[in-house]
């Protein structure tokens, strides 16, 4: 891989995508746990949340150009990238810890159902005979699980918003300039996170499906909001900002190089079509709609990243952390 600091590539876009989607999955699981109780989201979805964030972190290390020197990202306290890396790390740790505490109480039942082995009496007998423990420790971890749920919500929201903060601070990039990008990234992260939970719920249903049954309606509302906010964002950039911002936005709408991908790939197939499919209220339509939303989220991040740095020299503003990792 080239170590020249010339552009940000698809790996950084997918870092934003996987990180935002996985973090939002943890936010949704945490909120459902705190307000509705445990077991309301798919166990597979709760596991894939931190896995997706970890995938994003892995892609970031390769985007840096020297994966074995990625530790440098964590030592520059002044760099925005460092704050994001630490938050992603905490999100991964809290996410796996939350899943572990959620999984332990039901693990014996799953082993019994799939393998016919009654492991709970074996474990209980061993703990009692060897250590004098009469009650298995995970039976009293409900409070810790809820604390971890809160931490997942906090770190998950930060990870979901973080790309919008990072890009919005780069004043030399007309399309990114301003706070609007934070709301758009948060909205897309929540949409893809809910979509991923829907897919996971169809593969491995939750103990109680009340939350999963309502997620398509919530996602439809987010998709409608996403359509309105993106249309407003592009319109404001074209009509009410500087000429540089207007020119950057026109590439998305008026026959520019990104127009087809934005209007057809993201707005039509990634937003409008899944919004329509959710009204059919059957598992196949919901699965297709959710996959389209995930696909649209990946397109959006690539569009934002590539179009925002056209002729701006944006990568040079990442700061000393990325430069040091790539060049030393």
From TrEMBL:
Membrane topology: Multi-pass membrane protein
Metal-binding is among the record's keywords: no
Principal localisation: membrane
Gene3D superfamilies: Formate dehydrogenase/DMSO reductase domain (1.20.1630.10)
InterPro entries per the UniProt record, alphabetical: Electron_transfer_protein, NrfD-like
UniProt record similarity statement: Belongs to the NrfD family.
PANTHER family xref list: PROTEIN NRFD (PTHR34856)
Protein name, entry field: Cytochrome c nitrite reductase, NrfD subunit
């Amino acid at each position: 891989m080239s170590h020249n600091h010339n552009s940000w590539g698809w790996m950084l876009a997918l870092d934003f995508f996987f990180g935002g989607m996985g973090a939002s999955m943890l936010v949704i699981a945490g909120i459902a746990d705190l307000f509705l109780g445990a077991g309301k989201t798919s166990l597979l979805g709760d596991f894939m949340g931190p896995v997706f964030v970890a995938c994003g972190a892995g892609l970031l290390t390769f985007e840096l150009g020297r994966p074995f020197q990625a530790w440098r990202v964590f030592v520059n306290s002044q760099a925005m990238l460092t704050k994001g890396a630490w938050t992603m790390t905490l999100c991964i740790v809290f996410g796996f810890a939350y899943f572990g505490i959620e999984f332990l109480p039901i693990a014996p039942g799953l082993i019994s159902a799939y393998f016919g082995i009654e492991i709970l009496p074996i474990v209980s007998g061993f703990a009692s005979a060897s250590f004098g423990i009469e009650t298995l420790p995970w039976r009293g971890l409900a409070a810790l699980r809820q604390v971890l749920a809160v931490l997942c919500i906090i770190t998950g929201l930060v990870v979901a918003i973080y790309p919008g903060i990072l890009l919005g601070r780069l004043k030399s990039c007309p399309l990114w300039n301003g706070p609007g990008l934070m709301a758009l990234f948060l909205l897309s992260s929540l949409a893809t996170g809910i979509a991923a939970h829907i897919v996971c719920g169809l593969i491995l249903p939750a103990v109680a499906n009340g939350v999963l049954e309502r997620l398509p309606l919530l996602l439809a509302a987010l998709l409608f909001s996403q359509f309105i906010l993106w249309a407003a964002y592009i319109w404001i950039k074209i009509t009410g900002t500087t000429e540089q911002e207007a020119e950057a936005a026109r590439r998305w709408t008026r026959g520019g190089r990104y127009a087809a991908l934005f209007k057809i790939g993201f707005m039509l197939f990634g937003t409008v079509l899944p919004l329509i499919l959710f009204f059919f209220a059957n598992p196949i339509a919901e699965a297709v709609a959710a996959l389209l939303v995930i696909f649209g989220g990946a397109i959006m991040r690539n569009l934002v990243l590539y179009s925002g740095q056209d002729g701006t020299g944006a990568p040079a503003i990442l700061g000393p952390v990325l430069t040091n990792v790539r060049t030393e």
